[in-house]
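Protein Record: Sequence and Backbone Structure Tokens
======================================================
Tokens: labelled as protein backbone structure tokens, with as many entries as the chain has residues.
Question of interest: how does this chain fold, as expressed in backbone structure tokens?

___
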Amino acid sequence: MERRRKEKKKEEGFVLVASLLILLVLTMLGIAVNRNTSIEWQIAMNDRLHKQTFYAADAVTELAAEVLEQSIACRGFESNANGMKLRGVAGCDPENPNRPCHVFIDTDSLGFWRNYAEDGTVNNPNNSDRDIVFPAVLTGTDENVFNEGMTNSQPHANIKIGGSTKLTAGSAIQMAAGYEGLAKGLGTGGATLVYDIKVQQLGRNSSESLICVKYGHVLGLENACNY
């Protein structure tokens, strides 16, 4: 009986140690799972932010093409000491959904449609080198003063445009009228202004996306000037 009691005493505390070891293992697993979940969440949020910035830049290329068409139709815009604002649509500013967002063209860039750039030599736009910025923050009583600091501090797109004239290849169609020996010839050709439109979208949390697209304008097909 004494021997059995001694053996039982030797086993006292084993359950406590085993429980602590199990608790330690479970704690380590919990920390690992939590850390992995946090990393996966950050990856998902970064991917979402990158896609939002990319699609915003892609949308601005369409806006830039429309501004380019207006600039060609107007043969550039009138000189203005404060630059030129083109009123945009409401809803692009989350903090002021009813306030129209403006496209702003710097004074030195009003005739940007004449910018010569052979074979894609347009520099990448940035906050200090751009032709157009959207959306622009305008201050003053009549919202006629471009606030560069406030514009650069919010998500926005910087745009640079340049191009050159390319001759459009003509075509010829020859049709023979059999034994009559009659034939007709038709030749057409012209010129196209081929532009590089570069958009740098600066989004939230230092996200950035750069897109370059080719845009062609056929000379002689200008629309009406709205400015």
